[in-house]
Amino acid sequence: MIQTLLDFDLRVLAPELVIVAAAALLTIVDLLLKETVSRKWIGILGLLAVLVAGIFVGLGWGHEPYQILGDSYRIDDFSLAFKAILLFGTALVLLFSLSDKDTEKLEAESEYYSLLLTALLGAMIMVSSAELITLFVGLELLSLSSYILVGIRRKRADSAEAAWKYVVLGSVSSAFILYGMSFLYGLTGTTHLFEIQQHVAEIAGTDYQAFLYLSFFLMIVGFGFKISSAPFHTWAPDVYQGAATPVTIFLAVVSKVAAFAFVVRIVLIAFIPLVTTGVWNEVISWSFMLVAALSMIVGNTVALRQKDTKRLMAYSSIAHAGYMLVPPATMGFVGFDLFPSLVFYLVAYLCMTLGAFVVIEIVARRAGTYDMNAFAGLYQRSPSLALIMTFFLLSLAGLPVTAGFIGKFYILMSAIASTHYWLAAIMIATTVISYYYYFGFARQMYFRKAEDSQKIAVSWPTVAVVGMAVLGTILLGIIPDFFLQAFGQLDWVSGFSQAANSLGY
Amino acid sequence: MVVTSYLALSAILFSIGLYGVLTKRNAVIVLFCIELMLNAANINFVAFSKFGLFPDLAGHIFTLFTITIAAAEAALGIAILIALYRHVETAEADQFKSLKG
Fold first, then answer.
1. Contact list, A186 vs chain B (CB under 8 Å)
2. What does pTM read for this prediction?
3. Is residue A321 classed exposed, middle or buried when 0-12, 13-18 and 19+ CB atoms within 10 A define those classes?
4. Is residue A67 left, alpha or beta, with left meaning phi > 0 and alpha meaning psi from -120 to 50?
5. Which one of A438, B19, B28, B94 is most buried, counting C-beta atoms within 10 A?
6. Set of chain A residues whose Cβ sits within 8 Å of the Cβ of B80
7. In a domain, A302, yes or no
8. Residue among A157, A165, A182 whose CB faces B44 most closely
9. Residue A75: other Cβ atoms inside 10 A
10. Neighbouring C-alpha atoms within 13 Å toward the C-beta of A45
11. Which of B66, B82, B97 to probe the A interface (max A CBs under 10 A)?
12. Is the peptide bond before A231 cis (omega within 30 degrees of 0)?
């Protein structure tokens, strides 16, 4: 049966269409607007588009999984959940950008907003495709937009240098993913993940299995880079430090969440037949566990000697990538309940990392330096800001009554349930190490004298962003059962099986 | 099998590219080497679409997409390099070292 474009219910594409239309519209509006008009309006339009897309994602719940465009694009609970997280993260980044007084970034303000939207579009394509070409195009749309966003402050040497490092290492990692995909294609003769799955099931156990390993190990290099996990993490500290803080937040939060969905989707569809032959537990799980353990160790120990706050947060985010890799790594041992714990931690990570970065930006902008000393005596100057920062740090460190604690607890449980006690031990040990550098902030805020005794003024959009992050961290920490049950009720398995309307690819 | 010679060619190109990215000092050469890596993957796709286990046209189509993406990537790389050159006035990649810790 031949399907044409009009056979599909294209309304399911509404969130993506809103974002792509908005990105195009903002570029044109920028050309038509007079020089004197504030470019803030473009940012507000962008924020509106993200909110409208969010409403469409909300309306998309509760339907059967649906595949369109020759089975290459699918709408299921998995993609909707990740799209909701991506849109939430981007909305907060946009809201924060609206109050950001970074004069160098403001030179290209309208480009900044439209590039954020195209990067978001790439991320949404990544979480929603089930076909290698579409996945790769989405990945590159996100990557290319992020390269420009990192270098958008052209007048600053550190920004340009960060962009250069990002573009070189990012392209190399894309080349690794592409080279790995080419072997997967060569073995199966198709780019559709589900058809690949069928062929992989036939190949498993034959001589061609070596090529499957080759493909997997090439791709895991690229995957490791995109989620910034050790030993492929070297770009992250430089890029996080050199980029404007809203861009750093976007990379640390939105880009990382999309990369996780991308990795989980490819590995769990294409390589899942290897579970039956035992190869999964021996090779795939182990490589993920090694990357996870290395990320925790490297991220948490190298963070100890960082003086720059953004660099320190970069190493912290490398360590968190390690924690988040534990549920997918142990999946072969504990079954399909990895998603509630993974998604719970992703949302918790989003709230606390975003909040911590925003507070760092507020404090550092006032002090004129991103050095740790900028926090000296913050409690005497702005007690509320210091208390909020302490709260985010407690959550990042994984202490009780915060989202970070519950998230880490469930991840630890999945490591223990799979009887990989060494992984659980590394996780606990490195978490204890991380207390030292998180409390480095607290030492500065509470036990050092402030050089500048004035209170720090915070504009209302920033207050709203910090408020949302605090609210998210508190709610996830106080009523975790509600969220875990809500995540558990979603039909995650549907993201990894053919939809009813498929063409049989 | 015919396909092995193509695979060998692409593996050699990929390795040369990776070696160049890791060792070359000139930033433009580094960008060239990235192109080599991406094009090694393209050779694989085209070879597999003719001689793979299940020959199929999708490999050619994939290549068209990746050529376009690689072009965009190269343009971006050069643009960022020019922006960086204005600050450091050198195209030697080992001079780009203000960010460290």
1. 3, 44, 47-48, 52-53, 59
2. 0.93
3. buried
4. beta
5. A438
6. 147, 151, 160, 163-164, 167
7. yes
8. A182
9. 24
10. 23
11. B66
12. yes
Out of B34, B40, B99, name the one closest to residue A158 (CB): B99
SS3 content of chain B, % helix, strand, coil (to 5): 80, 0, 20
Q: Judge whether A401 lies within some domain.
A: yes
Residue A490 belongs to some domain of the structure: yes
pLDDT of residue A257: 93
As given in the structure block, the two tokens for residue A273 are: 């037949």
**Amino acid (one-letter) located at B6:** Y
Rounded-to-integer distance, Cα A140 and Cα A170, Å? 9
Total number of domains in chain A: 1
Please return the burial class of A290, using the count of CB atoms within 10 Å of its CB with bins 0-12, 13-18 and 19+: middle
The nearest CA of chain B is from the CA of A343 a distance in Å of 31
Q: Rounded to an integer, what is the distance from CA A30 to the centroid of its chain? A: 29
pLDDT at A505 over 90: no
Write down how long chain A is: 505
Read off the pLDDT of each residue in A57-70 and give the average, rounded to a whole number: 82
DSSP state letters, A15-42 = HHHHHHHHHHHHHHHHHHS-TTS-THHH
Longest dimension (CA), chain A: 75
What residues of chain A lie within 8 A of the CB of B31, using their CB?
Answer: 168
Q: Give the range of the structural domain holding residue A346, as residue numbers without chain letter.
A: 278-496
Q: Report which of A250, A197, A205 is spatially closest to residue A50, judged by C-alpha positions.
A: A250
Number of Cβ pairs closer than 8 Å across A and B?
145
A202 φ, ψ (degrees, to nearest 5): -70, -35
Q: Does B13 touch chain A (CB under 8 A)?
A: no
| Amino acid identity at A426 | I
| Each residue's pLDDT tens digit, B24-83 | 889 999 999 999 999 999 999 999 998 888 888 889 999 999 999 999 999 999 999 999
Residues 6+ apart with CB under 8 A from A376: A444, A445, A448, A449, A450, A451
Put simply, whether B92 touches A (Cβ < 8 Å) is no
Domain covering B2-91: architecture: Orthogonal Bundle (1.10)
Place of tokens 């579970």: A275
